[in-house]
């Protein structure tokens, strides 16, 4: 399976976590990228006769895996890397001191080092990082990895090295501006005097493909130079001529004659900003290469123009260059003002593009791209200036150019046409005027758009919506010409002011229901369908020979061109939607299809500590998509069960809140979970039912005793033995039932008071066989102590109910009320439990069908799922969201204006006067006066 960038980045992050604590963040990348290089080369070239690089015995990633857990793992890793370096003439490139795997100070000692390095190697052993099928020529793998590390660690490390790295987005802009696409021969050269990791050079050189330019570069930092060499090799530029050294004091000259610099067709550079030590090892006034002749010597403590002049001297007579420099070079005075004037007068400065602030690692200052072009310099009469500083997105603590920002910069540059508040061709005469005096600060020439929302004083005083604010929405009225009249109407007595015709809450519905809005929505749908008609065949025809980046370029350019003529909807915004989706999902999908075909590749990931097989899934075809297309009925059953459970839970929660809260009928129940609540409810309900049965039996016993006393009063003759036995036999069942239901109620100390539920049968037998004295004692207990135990007295009939409470609302809950609440809550809990079981069963039925459905997918079905229902459906929703965003912006603006001017000053004064009068009246009522 092709490597997904998300997997790569995740592994890199884990790698850095293993190294955290032993070294500075800026050093992590040296270790991680060397391991990445060894892993990549081993996967791609081991055992191949036509390999670009040789993977010798004892010099592969497999050897690193074999070293895991060994006491001398650090030494072993160094030897493995050294063998790979020696076999490919990479000594000093991948086996550098900055990545010593046997360094106790950075990696710990003893078992600490063994465990750390073992875990580190294991991360790259992950099967997901198999580079066998990866095509380096179509993806800047190491450059992206390096960028990822720099993005996470440049700021954290606190090192200025962050500024030596050019963000990928800026590199792409520079690569396009320098004009490499116009290259015609592989003999043409491209050069970067401060090449860093080489990513800028690679991106610029790729613009010339299929022509393969000759690459030259120089880098002073040893570890960064090593990264650049690795980067070039991995991308098939093993002949790139990179030199280690200080570009200003010891520039590489390659095959140039003595005292001259090699001349190049194209130059790109991002030199260190405002370096103060640029003259170290160099006497500028006696520079043998004449780099400062005719322009002037830069300030001793600021080397920005020193790098620019080096680039200028390194260009051929028709050469072109782009350099990143801080904004200060455009307006600083003294020696830099002299250099700036000479650059303009000689015509070598073709353009300036102002970039957003906080783009570069290690510095937050804004920068500018200076475009140099010697071709036609003598005839140049103007400088094209562009202020692109407002086009970016926040990305963590940095800013980043979006795809649409990159495209717009390049498009506007190529057209060289004026755009209000964005770009302008500025005549040299204007730059040289006394007012400007060769100051190139962009705001002098490209007026920024207003940043503040101006308020209309008269509207605040007298109300109404200013015509100027409504006219500012002209882009909407051009598309919806009659909608304006539906939303606002002129004020009859005040020209230039309007009032809303609809209530604020009706603005949005009025827009969405208007015929012109619906017509425009249909046009957007039709425009998207036009693009789909061209894009779908391209997507469906993907195969092993497809170049993903070329495919993206074709799709995105088609999308931009298709939506370009659509007024109001910005084609660049739609273009950005596609590029966002490419970065998030489509990129990985396309690379996998190209590498492995239209195969969903379903699998069951290992989950949990015991690494059991989890639910079926697929990186290409999400479970949700498979289910919606093939298992809709089963999904509906799960949804229905989910809704039933939600309703059962709602009912249970209502009853629980009603009865178990403070002062509720069941407030004394103790529980933490629904299961514990159910157990508590069942126990309490059983207890109440038992008590209810006891009460019933007591009533029967009372009735029997009362009847016996009445009979005794009529016939006071003492009982005979036979009569006593008969009486005992008659009362015994009631006594047994009472004793069984609540044995502790007696406590009399006699035979029956001591009996328990288990003793009841024996008690009955003993009583029937007892002597007359025992029987008489039992009768006496019923007659004497039984009255008191059963709550009978001379004034209370056996079946008389308790007196009603004088205050019904204060009466405690009756057992019947509590029993009813318990019964209802128990039913709700049981219903919720049953709903959970139903949902679980429905979900399991669905799950059991997912795996077989995945495995039955054909290539055509997978293609249909991806192209129609995943990719194009997502992009269709994205375009709809863009349209919705525009319409919501109109509604918000009208609502904002209506609210802003809703209460004019006279109305506010009247409201204040009324409130003042009320306050004075209250004060007067309290005996105070306030004026």
Structural commentary:
With 931 residues, the protein is of the alpha/beta class. α23 crosses α24 (632-660) and α26 (721-741) packs across α28. The radius of gyration is 44 Å and the shape is globular.
Major sheet summary line: 9 strands, mixed
Strand arrangement within the widest β-sheet reads: 3-2-1-4-5-7-6-8-11
Total number of helical segments? Answer: 32
* Oligomeric nature of the chains: single chain
Low-confidence runs (pLDDT<50, min 5 residues)?
A: 158-163, 741-772, 785-809
| Mean pLDDT over all positions | 84
Principal-axis shape: globular
Distance between the amino and carboxyl termini: 84 Å
Residue fraction in strands: 5-15%
Structural class, from helix and strand content? alpha/beta
Q: Helix amount, in percent?
A: 40-55%
Number of strands: 16
**What does the radius of gyration come to?**
44 Å
Pick out its properties.
32 helices, alpha/beta, nine-stranded mixed sheet, three-stranded antiparallel sheet, 931 residues
């Amino acid at each position: 399976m092709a490597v997904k960038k998300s997997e790569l980045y995740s592994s890199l992050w884990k790698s850095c976590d293993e190294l955290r604590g032993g070294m500075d963040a800026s050093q992590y990348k040296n270790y991680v990228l060397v391991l990445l290089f060894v892993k990549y080369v081993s996967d791609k070239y081991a055992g191949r006769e036509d390999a670009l690089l040789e993977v010798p015995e004892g010099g592969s990633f497999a050897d690193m895996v074999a070293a895991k857990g060994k006491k001398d793992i650090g030494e072993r890793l160094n030897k493995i890397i050294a063998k790979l370096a020696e076999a490919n003439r990479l000594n000093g490139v991948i086996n550098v001191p900055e990545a010593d795997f046997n360094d106790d100070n950075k990696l710990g000692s003893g078992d600490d080092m063994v465990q750390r390095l073992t875990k580190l190697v294991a991360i790259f052993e992950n099967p997901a990082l198999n580079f066998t099928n990866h095509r380096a020529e179509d993806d800047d793998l190491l450059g992206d990895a390096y960028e990822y590390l720099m993005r996470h660690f440049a700021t954290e490390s606190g090192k200025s090295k962050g500024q030596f790295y050019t963000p990928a987005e800026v590199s792409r802009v520079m690569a396009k501006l320098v004009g490499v696409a116009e290259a015609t021969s592989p003999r043409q050269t491209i050069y970067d005097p401060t090449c860093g990791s080489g990513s800028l050079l690679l991106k610029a050189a790729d613009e010339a493909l299929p022509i393969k330019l000759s690459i030259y570069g120089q880098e002073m930092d040893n570890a960064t130079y090593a990264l650049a060499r690795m980067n070039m090799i991995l991308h098939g530029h093993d002949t790139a001529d990179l030199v280690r050294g200080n570009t200003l004091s010891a520039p590489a000259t390659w095959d140039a004659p003595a005292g001259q610099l090699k001349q190049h067709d194209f130059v790109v550079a991002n030199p260190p900003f405002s370096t103060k030590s640029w003259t170290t090892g160099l006497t500028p006034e006696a520079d043998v290469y004449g780099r400062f002749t005719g322009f002037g010597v830069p300030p001793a403590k600021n080397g920005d123009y020193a790098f620019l002049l080096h680039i200028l001297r390194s260009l051929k007579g028709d050469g072109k260059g782009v350099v990143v420099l801080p904004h200060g070079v455009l307006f600083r005075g003294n020696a830099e003002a002299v250099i700036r004037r000479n650059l303009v007068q000689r015509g070598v400065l073709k353009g300036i593009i102002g970039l957003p602030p906080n783009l570069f690692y290690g510095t937050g200052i804004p920068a500018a791209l200076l475009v140099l072009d010697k071709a036609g310099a003598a005839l140049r009469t103007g400088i094209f200036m562009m202020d692109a500083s407002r086009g970016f997105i926040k990305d963590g603590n940095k800013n980043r150019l979006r795809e649409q920002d990159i495209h717009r910069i390049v498009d506007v540059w190529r057209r060289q046409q004026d755009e209000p508040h964005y770009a302008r061709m500025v005549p040299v005469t204007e730059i040289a005027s006394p007012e400007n005096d060769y100051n190139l600060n962009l705001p002098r020439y490209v007026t920024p758009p207003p940043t503040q929302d101006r308020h209309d004083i008269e509207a605040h005083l007298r109300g109404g919506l200013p015509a100027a604010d409504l006219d500012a929405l002209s882009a909407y009225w051009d598309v919806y010409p009659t909608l304006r009249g539906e939303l606002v109407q002129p004020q009859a007595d005040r020209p230039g002011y309007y009032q809303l015709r609809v209530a604020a809450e009706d603005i949005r519905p009025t827009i969405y229901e208007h015929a012109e809005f619906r017509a425009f929505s249909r046009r957007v749908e039709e425009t998207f369908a036009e693009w789909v008609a061209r894009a779908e065949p391209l997507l469906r025809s993907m195969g092993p020979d497809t170049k993903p980046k070329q495919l993206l370029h074709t799709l995105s350019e088609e999308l931009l061109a298709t939506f370009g003529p659509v007024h109001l909807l910005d084609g660049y915004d739609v273009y950005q939607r596609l590029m966002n989706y490419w970065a998030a999902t489509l990129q990985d999908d396309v690379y996998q299809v190209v590498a492995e075909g239209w195969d969903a590749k379903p699998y069951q990931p290992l989950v949990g500590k015991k690494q059991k097989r989890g639910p079926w899934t697929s990186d290409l075809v999400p479970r949700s998509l498979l289910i919606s297309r093939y298992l809709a009925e089963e999904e509906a059953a799960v949804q229905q069960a989910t809704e039933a459970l939600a309703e059962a839970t709602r009912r249970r929660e209502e009853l629980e809140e009603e009865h178990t809260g403070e002062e509720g009928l069941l407030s004394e129940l103790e529980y933490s979970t629904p299961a514990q609540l159910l157990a508590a409810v069942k126990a309490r309900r059983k207890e109440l039912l038992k008590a209810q049965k006891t009460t019933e039996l007591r009533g029967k016993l009372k009735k029997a005793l009362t009847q016996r006393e009445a009979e005794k009063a009529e016939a006071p003759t003492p009982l005979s033995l036979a009569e006593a036995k008969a009486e005992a036999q008659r009362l015994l069942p009631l006594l047994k039932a009472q004793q069984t239901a609540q044995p502790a109620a007696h406590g009399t100390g006699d035979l029956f008071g001591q009996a328990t539920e288990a003793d009841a049968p024996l008690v009955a037998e003993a009583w029937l066989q007892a002597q007359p004295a025992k029987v008489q004692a039992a009768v006496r207990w019923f007659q004497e102590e039984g009255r008191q135990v059963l709550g009978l007295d001379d004034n209370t009939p056996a079946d008389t109910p308790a007196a009603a409470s004088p205050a019904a609302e204060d009466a405690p809950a009756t057992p019947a009320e509590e029993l009813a609440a318990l019964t209802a809550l128990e039913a709700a809990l049981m219903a919720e439990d049953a709903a959970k079981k139903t949902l679980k069963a429905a979900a399991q039925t669905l799950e059991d069908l997912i795996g077989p459905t995945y495995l039955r997918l054909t290539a055509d079905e997978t293609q249909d799922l991806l192209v129609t229902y995943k990719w194009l459906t997502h992009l269709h929703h994205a375009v709809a969201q863009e349209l919705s965003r525009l319409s919501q912006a109109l509604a918000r603006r009208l609502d904002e204006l209506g609210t802003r001017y809703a209460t004019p000053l006279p109305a506010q004064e009247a409201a204040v006067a009324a409130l003042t009068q009320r306050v004075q009246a209250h004060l007067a009522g309290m005996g105070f006066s306030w004026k």
